[in-house]
Amino acid sequence: MVTDTNNMILLSRSLDAIMTRVAAKMGAYLEDRVDQLIHTGDPAWAPKSPNTLMKYAREKPPYGHKTEPWQKTTELMNLITHRIVSGDTAPYQIEVGIFDHPKADIAAVLEYGTRDGRIPARPLFSTVFDLEAENIPAMITRELEKELNKFLL
């Protein structure tokens, strides 16, 4: 229980900073989970076609050993980040992805596939979000409790 009104005033002034810190922690966590899935791969992802693998083997440097989607180079992996935006329905929204970069189109093709089906969907972000859907609310609750406990006497 908060008994000192000064703490309440300080708490009310700190709410935006608290929410931003908690959202940043969740964004970093999801970013890390995306990175882990890139490295482990998802058994549900369709394998690369033999033609694609042969093309990779001929490229310089040879990419034939990188058979998992999202792993041809580290370029896409290094572009994945998170950002915190103000939403219309929620005060803080965490987005994880590749933003404001020409390579974002490649990530979208990997995530959703192509309309003609030549490149199958190999969902990364939606898979992580689905896997973490139950964990994130509990993590947010724990982080908010830690932050709020700083104001309790």
* Spatial strand sequence of the major β-sheet: 1-2
Number of continuous helical runs: 6
Radius of gyration: 20 Å
What is the overall shape? elongated
- Low-confidence parts: none
For the sheet with most strands, the description reads: 2 strands, antiparallel
Order of secondary-structure elements = HHHEEHHH
User: What is the CA-CA span between the terminal residues?
Assistant: 7 Å
Global structural class: mainly alpha
How much strand content do the residues show?
Answer: 5-15%
Number of strands: 2
- Average pLDDT level: 84
Helix percentage range: 40-55%
Describe this structure in words.
With 153 residues, this protein is mostly helical. It is 54% helix and 7% strand. The chain is built from six helices and two strands; from the N terminus they run αααββααα. Strands 1-2 form a two-stranded antiparallel ribbon. Strand 1 (81-85) and strand 2 (93-97) form a beta hairpin. The protein is elongated. The N and C termini lie close together (7 Å). 10% of the residues are buried. The model has no long low-confidence stretch (mean pLDDT 84).
Descriptive key words:
153 residues; mainly alpha; 2 strands
Please give the structural blueprint.
Elements: H1 5-40, H2 50-58, H3 75-79, E1 81-85, E2 93-97, H4 104-112, H5 125-132, H6 135-149
Antiparallel strand pairs: 1-2
Helix pairs in contact: 1-5, 1-6
In summary, what is this structure?
The protein has 153 residues and is mostly helical.
